[in-house]
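Note to self: keep these together.
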Amino acid sequence: MFIANDINDVSVLSALNESSYKLASDLSLPKKLEECDFEEILYLLDNHFTPRRSGFAERHHFHSATQRSGEMHTQCATARSYKCKKCRQEGHLRRMCILGNKVYFIEKSNMDEDSDGNSSAQRSALAHVLVVAGLIPAHGIHLYRPYMFAMVWAFVLVYYVCFRTPKEGTMVVSKKNEWLIGSGMGLIGVGVLFSTTWSAIFHAKIQQMMILKEGSTSFGIWREIPIPIYLECFLFNITNVDELLAGKNVTMRVQELGPYVFREINKKVNISWNENSTVTFKNQRFWYFQPHLSNGSLSDNVTSINPVVATIAYTLRTERIMLKIIADMAMRMYHSNIFLTANVSSWLFEGVQDPILDLVGHIPGLPYTIPFDRFGWFYKRNGSIDTDGLFVTNTGSANFRDLGNIERWQNSNRTVYRDQCGELKGTTGELWALEKDQPEINIFAADLCTHMPLAYSGKVMVRGLPGVEFAANDSLFDNGHKYPNMACYCDEVRDENCMPAGALNVSSCKYGAPAFVTRPHFLGMDSYYPSKIQGLNPSEKHNFRMSIEPITGMPLAISAQLQANALVRHIPGLSINNQLPDPDMLVPMFWFREDIQVNEEYANFAKTALGVRFGFPYGFYLFIIIGVCLIVSGIYRIRKFALAKIREADIAASQKFLSHGDKKLGLQSLQNNL
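Structure:
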């Protein structure tokens, strides 16, 4: 062997004892030691015994280095590269940029930026891709450092182990294992990406469906409500009229009649779209009597206060005494007392004909122009497009949180009340964009010329759908008694016209009539007026409630309940108005309940949407689990293949060692001779 390799200096052969020969043989694999020349053997042994630098220590120094004050990014990168000679510096620096360290970007191994400025463009492109992919939030990546650190290093590790270009003497991974690990990485990437962004994607789709525009899902529902709406009307019949007219010191007794149920059809007409993300429209409503759902007939007679007499008296309460006496004489020409008996149909829709209305219509200088020739709670409202007024509503296209909010009503951004009570707030009830844990909502009621606040009252379940319920509390119609911000519903100088808590004065909204709105049966009202009436039975079932599905904003159930009352006070000079024993009474006239509940069709639609919302993430989690299993399977197969190769190499090395036994004995004898 030595003659073949032209080795003349035999002094070195003394170092090749049995252990040295074995070491040299192992280092020369897969070549045989006989095939190596002398210089190559020296290189193998020298390289083996030369101390090596610690990669862990270098990486520690590399990552612990910080940028000094005044140091350029490229200088800092170069300094870091010297701390880790064995590190893959370019890859480390790139990952440090992605993970949110001091931002510099290295495009070349020598840490110099491209002269054509491509580094800046590529940096912007990479950042854009990461933000769009959902790996980095738009406001910064520092919140996602632990997550991204694990993701990046996991992908780098798998790539380094399985997909790097094999060199001579390294293991070659089969295509099947590559597909296993690659598919696993892809499934994990898809699962992580969509599981973290699915909520935002879903809500964006819901917003697209709920924004009010032609062709959207919400537009058809808003334009003509497809859910059955029923209006239930209850009238109070005064049962002791004779005793009251006799001047006896008795309490007024009332009897509740009804309900008289009507099917309501609600449409939006005269729709026009505006450029400022609003839509202008009018309401058109139709009511159809439902005798099979009603408790009574429209021909039932009801006796109550004559609203025409009470309105004239209330309007003239501050006028001169002579004018009051003349008005009293005129009213007594047509009426003998303050009470009026008419059937239910007349009280509600057909209207009660009263000659005094014709007379009043010819008197000039009145503060209000009365556009009716009859009195009825819904007179001329059936099919009218002008009763509720002209609305301008926000479509939510510019800001989804403003969806459904009333921007203008009757060509104004204010109502008849002063200060903040006259501000337009809330929606008409069809469209909602609830915020998380919203404490209250506001519903704008055109009949009251103001909004009604409903406070959060808890969670409910309607047709299997979870929702949040809002209900009226003691803040509704408070007038500033408990809640100072409600004081603007009274005059700035509070007087007798400011009602006790629980009743709202809507006379300025109803042509000067002494109309006051409460909850049914005086629910939650101060006891001053309810104590003067017998036959009332307030309970929680009379409360105003609304349930909303918070994610889709779909109204689940509405129980809108209000009561109309007439204020009758003794006024000097108006004897026909002063026939009640008590000089200050709030007489209940009628109350209504408008019931709406989501039907099965729309409930199933909402269930499907919520199922997609909460079900899809589990599918993405399954992607991640399958991806992990594929990667583990691929790595296991690679490890199994590697162990087999190691065993084969061990067997080959053992056989080679045994085959060189005679040569080793020859070397030992040669050493002994020397």
